[in-house]
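Annex B, item 7. Sequence and structure tokens for protein A, then protein B.
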Amino acid sequence: MSASKLAIFVVMSIFLMQNLFVAFSVSESSVSESGRIPQPDLQISTEDITFSKSQFSVGEYVNISVRIHNKGNQAAGTFQVRYTDNSSGTFFPPLDTLQGCPEYSEITSETAYLPLIQGVHIITIIADATNLVVESDETNNRASIEIYVGSSQNTITIEHEITPNPCKMNENVWVNGSARLITGQPASNASVKITIDAIGKEYETKTNENGEFFYQFTSPSKVGKYLLNISVNSGEFHGFASDYLEVKRQEYPNLVVREISVSPSTPYTSEKVQISVVIQNKGKENATNVLVEMLIDDSVVGSDEKEKIDSDAKAVSNCTWKAKKGTHNVTVRINGILSQASKSFKVIERTTQSLIPQDMGVYVVVFVILCAVIFVYISSKEKSMKFNHIRKIIKKRDKRKLSSSVSVTDEKETKRGNG
């Protein structure tokens, strides 16, 4: 191979290696730690859409806001939000431009809406409507919501309340309201229509002499947010109002046994034993009329009824039992359902070595120590008294010796004087 060919081969090899290294680096850096390629994911739902007022009329502006969530693992660049109306309505602006949204965060878009005709309108909002952002999921960035637009010449004012709202599936719901003419007088004996277009339901009633109306119906059997329209018509006068009925999934209590305790832990035969059980409601719904049964060896030894246990709250049930020799097992039944929790303990026969109750052990030790201290004190007191007695005897003896010595000396001095 000539030198020129060898040089060309070396240059091409280096070029290919550099390109491979760059490609590998790019592909490596573009994959997140979780193994997914970093991409934004813009999402919106019906719950993210809000209006500046709850009643809509032809020719009256209303502000619309929508929260847009980026649940992807990469920031979204500039994108546009489009607002549309399946009926006749105008948006200002119809296309809102947002300057990006960081990963795992949210941003709000707003527009003004002017409905032009009376009736049901379906407002649809699309995030990244012009596909400026490449997303991991392109199907979850739109949401639609129904509104009812009333006449621009409403001559009846409607006030209403929906209870409960939110409600559960297939639950009884009340619509209570009142209707008044623009003069302030009650719209008495007027026809009232309550409609839920999404499920094709229409209910009719009438106002009483005070302009009040009441109606009960069963909520839809599916979870969702439903537009509820109310119209009042007295012939010459009419009025419209709308609201949302939110149907939520049914929640239930979830009662679990958190703790079982036996006191004393190792009882003696015929001793009174206390069984304590701690129950917790881990569900999202409060529990009422809870029956707690405590069983030892599958036999009920005590029961307790709790009127109410709130969500995430705890309750304690107790009972006493006369101990019988052997190994026993405590279980708990809640509203007739046996819990998996259990507690084993042993009852022993009382012996001569165990005449002192277990709880008295500490007192016995203290008593023994106290007796020892008293004994030492008395012993030292007796020794001190004996020592003092001996000292007194010695002092008396010394005093007598000194006295006799003085007497002898005086006698000698007297004889010496007489001589």
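Protein B:
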Amino acid sequence: MDATRLSDGEPVILKRFSLMRNGLERDITMFLASEPAKSHPRNHSTPIYEILDIPGEDHSILCLNVFVKYSRDCGFYMIVA
């Protein structure tokens, strides 16, 4: 889901992680978003602004990613083999 970060008006993407289903996804995301992996030239992951706990939900978090562009603006094609 896209949103606007209130602190600076930057557009962001909110991604919800279910810690029950896949607890490693948060660890992998944090690893790729921190140094030295963050600056590695082969790291093409979307930069992360922050990770937020969801009030009242013990098994989910929200990840605020940099908004890159609308997916409908990309030239995606389906390849049928």
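Comment on protein B: DSSP finds one helix and four strands in the chain.
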